[in-house]
From TrEMBL:
Residues 1-27 form the signal peptide. This is Na/Pi symporter. It is a multi-pass membrane protein. It comes from Teichococcus vastitatis. The lineage of its organism: Bacteria, Pseudomonadati, Pseudomonadota, Alphaproteobacteria, Acetobacterales. NCBIfam families: Na_Pi_symport (NF037997). It is found in: Cell membrane.
Length: 357
């Protein structure tokens, strides 16, 4: 299995610093009208608590799902060789089970490195993993934070009382409850920002597609989870702090930032494993570039698909990742041959391990 999904508090604090910089315009909005008084310390503590609970919940959810379904997902990945469509569906299912495209791709890299899955067969699975990440954004957009205590209680009861195989599912359920609780805490913490014109103006200035994309990529690099980034973006949108173009740009940036883990996982592995990670990075860069060029069309679809901004962003996430994967799916054999010539077989470093540890 890959390294633990547990995240220290430092990334949460760094992410808070990214979202809430000491911006001079925040204290005095344009036009000279003073913003309503606000306790910035309470805001910082509330955001820190919400982000920390959210990231802890993501870690528990991932740990529980990997323990409960990790071997099943690994076997599933190992049999994803019967055509591009099956590979796509396999990657989608495995990522849904593991709640992490990075974990899916790291496991896949291990299988490719060991020769258990061919490089060409791995590419549709990688595309499917991008679709699988959209499940969590739909959950975040449902606005079911009020049910977080129920999920926490049920998860803890299962963890304590259920037979061994079900205890891991209990941990995952408790993790999901903590994720929703953290999002609810974060949402309550940022509500006062609605009355700070300087803050809302700065956040909405990120609707410049390139700027918003860079913020989304940087945030994802800090917290090492595109799903977590989408959760925060959807929460900010639900509070009216960012508009649809800003949320879409940040969503696109998260697709770039999520590639860091998979690139690190290729250190010392075979060229085939390196090619798999480079395909993931290249596909995400090309698709995000296309998304930036077509962001008005994406925003138009999102606005048509739902009434509130949070759900619009989640729906756009599904459409963007699904359409991109399907457009590329049947080109994967040609792409695999091209990458074989670009980076021929050979060792990239130390001897390969049998699978992702």
């Amino acid at each position: 299995m890959p390294r633990s999904a547990s995240r220290p508090l430092l990334p949460a604090l760094l992410a808070l610093a990214l979202l809430l910089p000491a911006w001079p315009g925040w204290a005095q909005p344009a036009g000279g009208q003073a913003a309503p008084p606000m306790d910035w310390f309470d805001l910082a503590m509330g955001c820190t608590a919400g982000l920390a609970l959210f990231l802890l919940g993501v870690a528990l959810l991932a740990d529980g799902l990997r323990a409960a379904a990790g071997d099943r997902a690994k076997r599933l990945l190992g049999h994803a060789t019967d055509g591009p469509l099956r590979g796509l569906l396999t990657g989608t299912a495995a990522t849904t089970l593991l709640d992490s495209s990075s974990v899916t791709i790291i496991l896949l890299i291990g299988l490719v490195d060991a020769g258990l899955v061919g490089f060409a067969q791995a590419l549709p699975v990688i595309l499917g993993s991008n679709i699988g990440t959209t499940v969590s954004s739909q959950i975040f957009a449902l606005g079911i934070e009020d049910f977080a205590p129920i999920l926490l209680a049920l998860g803890l009861l299962a963890r304590a009382l259920a037979p061994e195989p079900w205890r891991h599912w209990g941990l995952a359920l408790a993790g999901l409850g903590l994720v929703l609780f953290g999002l609810g805490t974060l949402g309550e913490a940022v509500k006062p920002l609605q009355d700070q014109p300087g803050v809302t103006e700065w956040l909405r200035s990120s609707d410049a597609p390139l700027r918003g994309m860079l913020i989304g990529a940087a945030f994802t690099l800090l917290i090492q989870s595109s799903s977590a980034t989408l959760g925060v973006v959807i929460t900010l949108a639900s509070q009216g702090l960012i508009d649809l173009p800003t949320g879409l740009a940040m969503m696109l940036g998260a697709e770039i930032g999520t590639c860091s883990d998979t690139l690190l996982a290729t250190l010392g592995r075979s060229r085939a494993a390196v090619r798999a990670a480079l395909f993931h990075l290249g596909f995400n860069i090309v698709s995000v570039a296309a998304g930036l060029l077509l962001i008005d069309a994406l925003a138009g679809f999102a606005a048509w698909s739902a009434g509130d901004t949070a759900q619009q962003i989640a729906n756009a996430h599904v459409a963007f990742n699904t359409v991109g994967a399907l457009l590329c799916l049947y080109a994967t054999p040609a792409l695999a041959r091209w990458m074989d010539r670009l980076l021929p077989d050979g060792r990239a470093g130390r001897p390969a391990t049998a699978a992702a540890e």
